[in-house]
Amino acid sequence: xxxxxxxxxxxxxxxxxxxxxxxxxxxxxxxxxxxxxxxxxxxxxxxxxxxxxxxxxxxxxxxxxxxxxxxxxxxxxxxxxxxxxxxxxxxxxxxxxxxxxxxxxxxxxxxxxxxxxxxxxxxxxxxxxxxxxxxxxxxxxxxxxxxxxxxxxxxxxxxxxxxxxxxxxxxxxxxxxxxxxxxxxxxxxxxxxxxxxxxxxxxxxxxxxxxxxxxxxxxxxxxxxxxxxxxxxxxxxxxxxxxxxxxxxxxxxxxxxxxxxxxxxxxxxxxxxxxxxxxxxxxxxxxxxxxxxxxxxxxxxxxxxxxxxxxxxxxxxxxxxxxxxxxxxxxxxxxxxxxxxxxxxxxxxxxxxxxxxxxxxxxxx
Amino acid sequence: xxxxxxxxxxxxxxxxxxxxxxxxxxxxxxxxxxxxxxxxxxxxxxxxxxxxxxxxxxxxxxxxxxxxxxxxxxxxxxxxxxxxxxxxxxxxxxxxxxxxxxxxxxxxxxxxxxxxxxxxxxxxxxxxxxxxxxxxxxxxxxxxxxxxxxxxxxxxxxxxxxxxxxxxxxxxxxxxxxxxxxxxxxxxxxxxxxxxxxxxxxxxxxxxxxxxxxxxxxxxxxxxxxxxxxxxxxxxxxxxxxxxxxxxxxxxxxxxxxxxxxxxxxxxxxxxxxxxxxxxxxxxxxxxxxxxxxxxxxxxxxxxxxxxxxxxxxxxxxxxxxxxxxxxxxxxxxxxxxxxxxxxxxxxxxxxxxxxxxxxxxxxx
DNA sequence: CTTTTTTCTGAGAGCGCTCTATGAAAAACC
DNA sequence: GGTTTTTCATAGAGCGCTCTCAGAAAAAAG
Lengths: 365, 365
What we know:
Two copies of one chain form a homodimer. By secondary structure, chain A is α/β, with parallel strands linked by helices. Chain A is built from 14 helices and 13 strands. Chain A has a seven-stranded mixed sheet, with helices on both faces. In chain A, strands 7-6-8-9-10-12 form a six-stranded mixed sheet, sandwiched between helices. The longest helix of chain A has 18 residues, at 302-319. Residues 1-5 and 343-365 of chain A have low confidence and may be disordered. At the A-B interface, helix 4, helix 5, helix 6, strand 2 and helix 7 of A face helix 4, helix 5, helix 6, strand 2 and helix 7 of B. The first copy, chain A, binds a DNA duplex through residues 8, 10-12, 20-24, 26-27, 29-30, 34-36, 39, 54-55, 57-64, 126.
């Protein structure tokens, strides 16, 4: 009896059934505290009996709040879903949405041509309360658009210009630094890296962390040991083949998926991991643990990132844009089997990172 | 100049700027043919100059059409994204949405508790023009709900009761039949199967295809050679370990992911694929090709399925529910390296399936 | 017991758009 | 040239909800 009215019930009818005015029903729905107990009970009974649910379009038109947020992933889908990263991010976002009774809309584009229409659809119709955008590209036409239209937005990953944009990111520089330091500490001499795309901030930051670690240890940076990938398996494979020409004994791959590709290339060259070449990844998505051999990597809290993005967006929605929020989560070194772990407990304290998954620093810029 | 009006433009204002009535602007937006060329040009110019875009909430309230559809995946997300199946399905759906200028909302639930609230949110607010639902579970409280509320819906995968429900599916029985027949034809004697969950139609149908193939060849069905999995890697691994007790020489796994788990179990037992145990999967998602050794499997057009689901939904939206539509796509045997392919060209014609990816049968029930 | 303050409900004006009914102008017909 | 059709823009009534404002009733104060 709680539902299935042939025709949809309106506020008006509920009001009539309860013998009150429309405004009162609206109030019990949106702010029960403002209605006297008797009236509230009366209305609530009718709502329970009829299974009344407000019409979102009408509510949204009148209140300019829809409870709908958008997730915009400005990359072509084939690329997007080649990696478990995005599904897990989506899972996190969706979880937080469920927690807050938000509805999630998804804007993926399948070809570059979709982009313009998609953005119009997402941003122009005024339906979305706000958006979460993944910072995939260094050149992002979306940022000025979002600012001009004054649409609350939170980036996942550091956007190219963060002066007016809130974001949630992991500390990529430090993660890469830790990864590279780990390799150096284990005694490897020729530590190479397969970077992410140089048109993404994540790619740039992780490369910077690699170089920082090298320099701090007084190693010189050899450009031959730096090859650019695009986070995909194939690019990891190709990059590794190129790297092999220069005989690295350890490699920091800027994503797990590229690490898998690299391992394949290493094996095809008749070499072994980690005996001949050690390798460390970045991400620690589920396949890393299951891979054979299990991958040593830098864990980033992707799901958590997604959830926090929603929280920050909600904050923006309530408090207005004000100073943009920047949340940086820490990463964690996860030692498994691809770096040859024997030497790892050197003198002078454990090199093992503290798991600090829950913590994060909150810095405003 | 095409956008960034500080305050959002309304139809009203566009009408004023163009010196026409609101109704006229509305008509050029929705049905340009019904407006005389001069007026149309005048209005279109203003729209182009101002970058006007109609407010979705208002439009949806007045016309009862939002251009938004929902994708409901009635499984817990951790499970959902453990497999590349869903991301690829989403990609297909999203592609078709872009093609038709539809907006996609995503309803995932992260715990069983979400379910009720999620369904209310998805179905009760009247915002969605229709929904696509994945037929994951045999017991689906959604179907009666959808019928009662008269919400246009298309299932991906055969729903438990299809008498009133449209769906798009692949021919699971025939796919499993082909897979099993392939194994038999190659000369394997003890052909086992790792089934999908028995509370899903896909699991049931693929099991049925396996049994049908066995029976048609006069093989007797040995219950010891049938173990139930849940499409996950771990379940494939566990199922295979159990199967190994009964010395199968070939296995049909009802999903690629389970096949990967099974292969791991086989190797851990000191056996080789395909020399000691042949294995064939189902899905042919990207990892199948990249796996070492590349997996022989049954290809199902997942992306295409997603796109067609949208097309069918659109049809429903335009034509009304009428007789439910049932679209069954065919599968295709993809021979790679896990079945020992040498014997495959037996006498009496090639056992290789015709690739028929593009075709599908359209049967109404 | 009257006045002031507080608490709540109801009336009513939108939110921005669609769509039917209406009527004016243009085209077609006799 | 007058009448009937056809074409096409406009007026205006909603769609279902929120929210401000005013006023009635109840509580507090004098």
